[in-house]
Amino acid sequence: MKTIPIFFTIDAPYAPYLSVAIASLVDNASKDYNYNIHVVYESITDSAKKKLKTLEKDNVKIIFNKMQKELESITNRKENLLRTDIFTLTIYFRLFIPEMFPEYDKAIYLDSDTCILGDVSELYNYDLQDNLFGGCNDISCQDNATLCAYFANNAGAEINDYINSGVLLMNMEKLREVNFANHFLYLLNKYHFDTVCPDQDYINAMAYGKILHLPNEWDAMPTNGSLVFEQPKIVHYNLFSKPWHYDDVDYEEYFWKYAERSLFKEEIFKEKNKFTKEMQKEDIKVLDNLVNRAEEIMHNEVTFKKVFESGQEKRI
């Protein structure tokens, strides 16, 4: 049978949520394929590995790969922070998957805060042609005028063109051919572009015009009820919309269905119970900071859009 490679990138605290993502993926995947699920990690405990391995099936392998790429040039500076408050190298790991795994010409990348409700073989079988990525619009930000303007004026991609990087169909062969990872490091080290969505902005800016836009059901994100799909294929609990922190999150029933079965169930409920009102207020502050930073960044002298449109650099 044909083998479909699927990649997740995590560090240790996200193992419980990854268990939900993998369990849902396995539950809804076609039996006509084999699946190699690669967990590319910065750190993870042996205990977590053992629990995740219990999700294997006859046609599903779970393979752990420690991130080997030297990423010293990506440092804890404000332009490399996710949401303006988190520095984690794991968000960048997806950019290096093609060169780390030359045995694959095509692959799926998924964030670990997802619930996979459709058959991932359908996602894999989309024809990428010469596009570098397949992805879905970032609908989680569509109602925020500042963030929409930020996407257009910083990355140079209007909201209807700008994709979320949490669900990607990757043209591994083509990404190696154009040397995407090294070009990313070159731009990062030369310009240190200010961003609030670091890996995502680089993908949209560099690959603009070479992205296959997929139906948004493949990356359905909570939008406080403004756009809810009746039959989402992948739910992505993006930004602060985590059912393990908040009540009444769009699509939360899918998460809890699989969390109830998880060997990490105790840890997941412990996290939910310890998330206080003060922590919720802190999230609101972080979101306000994110929007304010986005407003500042799009007026910078150096942005992706200005550098590419001036001819100083070329997109991939």
Structural commentary:
With 316 residues, the protein is of the alpha/beta class. The chain has a single domain, classed as Spore Coat Polysaccharide Biosynthesis Protein SpsA, Chain A. Helix content is 37%, strand content 16%. It contains 13 helices and 9 strands. It has helices at residues 15-28, 46-53, 90-93, 97-100, 120-124, 145-155, 172-177, 180-191, 198-206, 252-259, 265-274, 277-297, 304-309; strands at 3-10, 34-41, 60-66, 107-110, 114-116, 133-137, 163-170, 211-213, 234-236. It has a 7-stranded mixed beta sheet with strand order 3-2-1-4-7-6-8, sandwiched between helices. Strands 5-9 form a two-stranded antiparallel ribbon. Helix 1 runs parallel beside helix 2 and helix 6 (145-155) crosses helix 12 (277-297). The longest helix is centred in the C-terminal third of the chain and has 21 residues, at 277-297. It is globular. The chain starts with a strand and ends in a 7-residue tail after the last helix. Mean pLDDT is 91; it is low at 72-88.
Provide a concise account of the structure shown.
This protein has helices spanning 15-28, 46-53, 90-93, 97-100, 120-124, 145-155, 172-177, 180-191, 198-206, 252-259, 265-274, 277-297, 304-309, and strands at residues 3-10, 34-41, 60-66, 107-110, 114-116, 133-137, 163-170, 211-213, 234-236.
For this entry, give a set of tags.
single chain; 316 residues; alpha/beta; Spore Coat Polysaccharide Biosynthesis Protein SpsA, Chain A; seven-stranded mixed β-sheet; 13 helices; globular
